[in-house]
Amino acid sequence: MTDPRARHQQLVQEIEAHRHAYYELDAPTVSDSAYDSLERELRELEAQWPELATPESPTQTVGGAVAQGFASVKHRERMMSLDNAFSLEDVEAWLARVEKDAGEQSVVCEPKIDGLSISLTYEDGVLVRGVTRGDGTTGEDVTANVLTIAGLPRVLAGDRVPAVVEVRGEVYLPVAAFEELNARLLEDGKAPYANPRNTAAGSLRQKDAAVTATRPLAVTTYALGALEWGATEPHPAIGSQHGVYEVLASWGLPVSEHARVVRGVEEVAGYLRELEDKRHSLIHEIDGAVLKVDDRGVQGALGSTSRAPRWAIAYKFPPEEVHTTLEDIRVDVGRTGRVTPYGVMTPVLVAGSTVTFATLHNAHEVKRKGVLIGDTVVLRKAGDVIPEIVGPVVAARTGAEREWTMPAECPSCGTRLAEQKEGDKDLRCPNSEGCPAQIVDRIAFIGSRGAFDVEVLGEKAAAALVESGVLANEAGLFSLTEADLTRVPLFTYEVDEKLTRKQVEAGIEGRKAGDLSANGQKLLDNLAGARSQPLWRVLVSLSIRHVGPTASRALAAAFGSMDAIRSASEDQLAAVEGVGPVIAESVLQWFTVPWHVEIVERWAEAGVRMEDERDESIARTLEGLTIVATGSLEGFTRDSVKEAIISRGGKAAGSVSKNSDYVVIGANAGSKAAKAESLGVPMLSEAQFVRLLAEGPAGLD
Ligand code: IVH
After folding, report:
1. Could you give the domains of the chain?
2. Is this prediction's pTM over 0.85?
3. Which terminus in the chain has less CB density within 10 A, N or C?
């Protein structure tokens, strides 16, 4: 076992270095959770070896100091830190300690704002000083900077204002302001800030208050330090923590709107659950909740250790930002040929799941983030959001890191990568016909839920079908036979089935190695079932650029069959609502490529349905007619009007042109009615439209 004294010294040194980076340089070198673990280890070590817990130990002190260039100010009353709870059990243990000393207590629960603490001194109601926490006893004078914070009153409101009060609170940068600031920096080609907390800390601790003034900092107040009422009658509400918030608010100071008084562990747990749920909809970042005994008399009786009160505790949420090593950057070739770099990291637990990969989008992003292979990186996964590499921890570099360069050739087929059009950020492999990575991805995509929804057809199956040579591309997918699949090891049995003697005697023939497996049979069955999927799913499955589910549904609804789409003009395609010129051109282009057409033809030969089913009970009164409906109709929705037209053999167009046969005018019809009028296209009322549906043009006579 390592010598506890040596380990203690090592932990103290590390913690102090991290505190220096966090509080004085505003540039932390470890994640909050890694720091918390070090502090926890130190605490546990000192519990075992109490002689190590000297007054200088970080367990007994508040992090931070007065940095050079700031005047130091002594707080009238010390500023404390908080002890942490990392689980409900920790919270329960704290509640039990409180109860043992003071009986069951009501507790105020409130957000733990991820900013930096400030002490605001008001003398006779006038803001005279703003001071950072520093080491708890002495802090940095940031008065000039504090005065730039909008929403912080210079003068307290009301007539119950004390002679002197130190108001404690948290300065933060609202998430929206942080994002705006970063967007501007990116636009100017500058490196973005890592997170709102460090940006807020850096902004408040500026030597030049004019710089601070450009950052929209905000403050929430949550505690009182020194308090002298002077000639003013003390406010009676001050006896409870929730009363303190009422008083602070009555003075015009910003307080949290999420504070709540609760009782018992169940209610505390309920509050914590709710707060975690709305964690990302608050205007500032939070890293947990603070629980405070409500009765201030009891607070006084419970007292404090040298660094934290016994009457309060911070409950920390599981971390959303962690540090890990970026082991490599690789590229992925997607179904459309887009080549995407992604980071491969030492697996790390963040916000409840283990993360190994994170997309880096494109080479520009890699450059912008400034990450090197081998870097310690900040990895962030906020709630349900996709994990993101925020950036490198530059201070942790050893010199062994190396730069990554985007490959010039496709890693799958060796074709030279290119921009699709000038100025594109993405590079693509232009070999869509022959690039194995693209073919595999397209086939897997056909199986995906949003396309043909073939359960067995995922990435692995697609790769097996291509690698075995059974499929050259997606054209042969629906013609796959049992014989084909038995050539794919993934879809066959590996060994002969073991039979009992009885089965052998009964003449039962077991499955042999190389026979089609149950999974292989399932693939064949699923593909057979998929042949009668609606037309829009067929369209989605073709991987035509810009043609996703929305455009596919619109095209299918407007034209009803693959043939009709193929023979439509660019104008006719573009006229469909939800399609437009870009998609129209893409569709038209797609059909000019012979191997694309072959896919459609071979699918059709294999029995894939290329038109939507007609309801034979509906008379085809609108055959050959193009109809536009505009404005709101009483008896139809936007979708049902299209459906009514298409099911009767007509085309539902989204915009009026000389090709339109009729324009149906509903309430509040706008420019389309005017256009119909100018082009001389016949306009119909809803009643006339209903007659047209029933009887065709003859019904209008
Ligand atoms: S009360 C004596 N309430 O968390 C108690 N602190 O980790 C003083 N913090 O130094 C703190 N939100 O900077 C309190 N609602 C809140 C808080 C809060 C954030 C910060 C504060 C404190 C640190 C301790």
Report:
1. 4-52 (1.10.287.610), 72-316 (3.30.470.30), 319-431 (2.40.50.140), 441-605 (1.10.150.20), 626-700 (3.40.50.10190)
2. no
3. N
